[in-house]
Amino acid sequence: MISSATAGLVSVVIPVHDQASYIGEALASVYAQDVHPLDVIVVDDGSTDDSLATAQARFPAIRAIRQDNAGIGAARNRGVEAARGEYLAFLDADDRWPAGSLSRLLAALAELTGPAMAFGHLRHFLCPSLNQQSRERLHCPAGPAPGYFAGAMLIRRDDFRRVGPFEEDLRVGEFAGWLARARDRGLAQTLIDDVVLERRVHLSNHTLQWRDSFASYAQMLKRMIDRRRSETE
Q: What is the pTM of this model?
């Protein structure tokens, strides 16, 4: 059972870049949770649309931060710096949480002693605004899958700091790199069966060039290998 005092110690960090069409739905899913976060921090990463104004108009209680475009890792780090809660949760501006996600992750994390992180499953969904031609172009995985993503994780803020911030020079793979460091530092983890994240499939989250994606992942993997090699020498 999660007490109201514990539930009120969660900080939610939402980075946003040109997602005015979706951020309202993401925030609605946060405020619809059965536990109310201590603060919801929206970090606008140099948007060229009215993402932040849209968020503030619908949810004036959010804490808003603006920065020049520096990538999702930098935006999440800014949010963590501003967070006041004992626990950290992350949500991308085009995704959403099903009802009960926070309480289930809090309950799972409470069962772990020592540095730890809790994950749930995720489910993809095609954006309802897509036309039929776009729906046929995009791949939407069917069924729940293990959610080793930032939006499906809950972690204590002290444990996040133990691992360190997200790498800000990686445009792709920044969470995979962070998770590898967390595991190398001995953080325990649990994966619950519940779906705690719904990931939106739409045209603008498939616009990264393959070359740039592979370069970022290769850079992340090299750092991981180099780090592990240095720790064993």
A: 0.85
User: What tokens were used for 93?
Assistant: 């501006």
pLDDT tens digits, 120-147: 999 998 887 777 776 667 777 888 999 9
CB-based burial of residue 212 (10 Å sphere; 0-12 exposed, 13-18 middle, 19+ buried)? exposed
The matching CATH number, chosen from 3.90.550.10, 3.40.50.11440, 3.30.70.360, 3.30.70.1150, for 4-232 is: 3.90.550.10
pLDDT band (50, 70, 90) for residue 170:
confident
For residue 27, with 0-12 CB atoms within 10 Å meaning exposed, 13-18 middle and 19 or more buried, which class applies?
Answer: buried
Question: Tokens at residue 162, please?
Answer: 């133990």
